[in-house]
Amino acid sequence: MAEYGAARYRRRREAEGKAVREKADVPDGHKRCPQCEEVKPHSEWELNSTSSDGHASYCKPCRAERNQHGYFKRKYGLTMEDRDEMIAAQKGLCVICLKAPPAHVDHCHETGKVRGVLCFNCNSAIGKLGDDPDALRRAISYLEGNPWKPTLVAPGVYRLPS
Known about the structure:
The protein is an alpha+beta fold. Among the domains are: 30-77, 2-Layer Sandwich (Wheat Germ Agglutinin (Isolectin 2), domain 1), CATH 3.30.60; 91-147, His-Me finger endonucleases (His-Me finger endonuclease fold, 3-Layer(aba) Sandwich), CATH 3.40.1800.10. It is 36% helix and 14% strand. The strands form three sheets. It has a two-stranded antiparallel sheet. A two-stranded antiparallel sheet has the order 3-4. The radius of gyration is 27 Å and the shape is elongated.
């Protein structure tokens, strides 16, 4: 007698020495997540019209974690472990303000090179200054009480302070 479908798949996986997950009895309105292996109600799943049951393959928290891992790898070439090592090397603090916990990967927008992990405020501050060291120097001078005002030399001609 020929084997078909699931029975054949299970036999082949076992012959290859690979794990075969036992089918779990799940109550109606629930689904089992293959990552956390918990049975959760459908409200804990995102909808997916292309799947057979209409729900995503992974529960919302596991899906978010998987998406974050993929995002870091695609955008920065980093794993979450790489990011955590950078944070540990920074003693768990933002390298600019030395107060807040770092959570945002900072990178050069021209080269894509990762510079470090900063807190939200510091990362957005240097981003708003356009990653421009000269703008940052002017901001420092301003904060130290040195006004940065151009001098009118002739009508429409200004001399910038050095």
